[in-house]
Structures are given as C-alpha cells and as structure tokens.
C-alpha cells in the first residue's frame, strides 16, 4: 500500500529531529511506548547508534493522558482498523520527513507500543523502513496481511529486524515474540531474536544487544 503524501503530512505527528554527526550511520526512527513522547527515546537512540540522525515521533492517539500510536480495545487487544489507519498516517509522515530533512530510509527503534507500530509498518508499508529494532513487541495485526502489494524497488527481501523479548514480561503471551519472528520471516525479513532476563522494562542487556546489532548494519542511502 502506497502512503498518501501531502504537503501537511509532517503535521500528522509532533516530532523531534537530531541531526547526524556521523554520515556513515543510517538514521533512526524512534517510536516510544505507551505514555512516552518524542523526547522519550532520544537518549537511547544516541546510546545505541552514536552519531546517527534521529527522527523521534509522538503517537497521536490518547489513552487517558498517555500518548500511543494506535488504539487498543483492552490490554493486549488491538483495534485492527486503527492500527492500519495509523500505520498509513505514519508511513506518509516518514515520507514527508525524509524529503524535508534529507534523510535516507530510517531504521525503526521501537519500544512496546512503538515496536508494534514499527512491525505494522514493515508488514503494511514495505520500503518505509530500512530495518527495525523491536523491543518487547507483540503481533500487531490479526490476520497478518498476505497480499500487500510490494513494489520491486521497495520489497527488499532480507530487511534486517531485531526482536528483543523479556523472559518475565507479564504483558506478553507465551510465544508471542517467536510468532512475530515467524511472520516477518515469511515476508522475507532477516530476523534475529534475542531473549533477555527481564520483564517489560528495558535493561542494559537490551542496549548492548541493540548497539551491537546496529553497528553491523550497512548504510543504505
């Protein structure tokens, strides 16, 4: 599905941009968890990819006072129509932001709700992301799309994806991260899945794994 890019697409999301200081690093698209904002993952982005340009986005859905990237009907029950609509909005925003700020296709760094949105982008809008680091994700789409048109220049078989799940995460169903890895591999992604001794919150192990994985990713302009 090709996102609709308009002149006001940048207004779809409040965002923050940190310019690159290392031109060899691909840019990161930072997608926070529930209750975060566009400032939330800046420090993490600098830690895992020193010198990379950062495009950090605030979700424009509210759950009480907590920003999110899409609605949910209950804990672990996602509004499927809203996931698809918000993914299209974010894909259009990324296209507009790339043009405005002169960015290459970004690698997403998403936590929890932000990781779920990044996974939805990979499935619904191939070519928007050059790769993704998914920290504590779940499967965001049910059913998983199987007939999404994939332009030849955007299909990119082997899109690199890192999933990091926690052994004691109370918010994840057993096998959820493994199921997501299988679905992404079926779409042609090159998925690495790591499990850390942690709950839903991030740890130093998450930072170390993401840093090492991103350091091995080549820059694609």
From TrEMBL:
Residues 26-144 form the AB hydrolase-1 domain. Keywords: Hydrolase. The lineage of its organism: Bacteria, Pseudomonadati, Pseudomonadota, Alphaproteobacteria, Hyphomicrobiales. GO terms for molecular function: hydrolase activity. Transmembrane segments: none annotated. The keyword Translocase does not apply. This is Hydrolase MhqD. It comes from the Bacteria.
